[in-house]
Amino acid sequence: MRAVIVAVGVAFLISLFGTPIAIKVFTRLKAGQPIRAEGPAMHQGKKGTPTMGGVVFILATVIAYVAGHLALTTLPDQQIAQVEPTITALVLLGLMVFSGAVGFLDDFLKVRKKNSAGLNKRGKLLGQILVGAAFGIVALYFPSSMTDASGTATNTETVGSTTLSFIRDIPALEIGKIASVIVIIFVVMAATNGVNLTDGLDGLATGASVMVLAAYALIAFWQYRHWCADPNYSQAYCYAVRDPLEIALIAGAAAGACVGFLWWNTSPARIFMGDTGALGLGGLIAGMAMSTRTILLLPIIGGLFVIITMSVVIQIISFRTTGKRVFRMSPLQHHFELAGWSEVNIVVRFWIIAGIGVAIALGLFYSEFLAAVT
Q1: Would you say 329 and 335 are in contact if contact means Cβ atoms under 8 Å apart?
Q2: Interior CA angle at 329 toward 327 and 333, to 5°?
Q3: What span, in angstroms and rounded, lies between the C-alpha atoms of 227 and 243?
Q4: Which residue of 41, 132, 329, 349 pairs with 334 in a disulfide if CB–CB is 3.0 to 4.6 A?
């Protein structure tokens, strides 16, 4: 727990004090956010606000991970902890950094062209597929090699699984490695686009991501305390995952970094995360679902992202089939803006919805544990 707390604190402080520096730098570089002309009229006042702020919390998460590992070296010998960096960290941080890189390219093109077009849909889609495929393969083809004092393997798990999962792997849903890589690609695409679509109002996506990442930190730490690979854990019920403390450390660091960024991103935002941050967070959230073996639980944990994404899908299908729009504008948050809700009211109420999804998911996760041990 000490390492996780250190990572959270370091990430929060770096993001809190690093974001004002980024605001000044991006302002000098004239990296202002272009605003769509067809968007809500009230958004035109945000034109020129620095974007690409996701660089700050992505960097803060990586640095905090290193700080957390330094804290691991102080743990007592009897506590099971992987002090050296692991494949799990490579996959999770890789998904965050390289998904963020795709978003950074999109933001850079928007700033350079001085319009909201950015990277075309095909290019962004290809980038997401390549990132998901690359780290999906790493997640499935590099098992752990943890052994006990006698040299006996205690954990041969991979970061990902060839079985679909809800609270844990579902044995009846074994799909093989190739299909699993395809599933990982789909989850990466869904999560990155879900967070990106949610990032339309000051602080909305950041606050929702804090809740989701905090939930994964709790789930991963609970798995660490009930880990099948822990020789000190004697109960029959345990979680067969790889490096759960690593997962908790990274999730906690990312959540802390987002809280620090939210200080400057809340209304009225001094800086936007841009696609850099939205795709980076989405990639990490997808990695969290994969590594904790809770892929089918993700739509509940990220319920707000699902609702907002579905509003876009419904709008497109309705308009193309009937010529009519279900919402005044999509994504959903803009519908309520045009209905007369204030931006702050929308953000707070959507945060409540995000919190409800997280609470339900954590309840399902813990109730499964209670049912198994009683």
Answers
A1: yes
A2: 95
A3: 9
A4: 329
pLDDT at 310 over 90: yes
Give the pLDDT band of residue 113 (cuts 50, 70, 90): confident
Residues 333 and 204: beta-carbon distance below 8 Å: yes
**50 bridge partner residues:** 32
Burial of 167 (0-12, 13-18, 19+ CB in 10 A): buried
Mean pLDDT along residues 284-309 = 97
Q: Which of 101, 77, 19 is nearest to 53 (CA)?
A: 19
Structure pTM?
Answer: 0.93
| Contact present, 291 and 96 (Cβ < 8 Å) | no
Average pLDDT, the chain: 90
Does the structure show a pLDDT above 60 at 78? no
Task: Tell which residue, 181, 200, 174, 364, has the closest CA to residue 274.
Answer: 200
Q: Is the pLDDT score of 147 beyond 70?
A: no
Taking residue 212's Cβ as centre, other Cβ atoms within 10 Å add up to: 30
The identity of residue 47, as a single letter, is K
Alpha helix locations (H) across 142-203? Answer: 176-198
Token code pair at residue 323? 């010529």
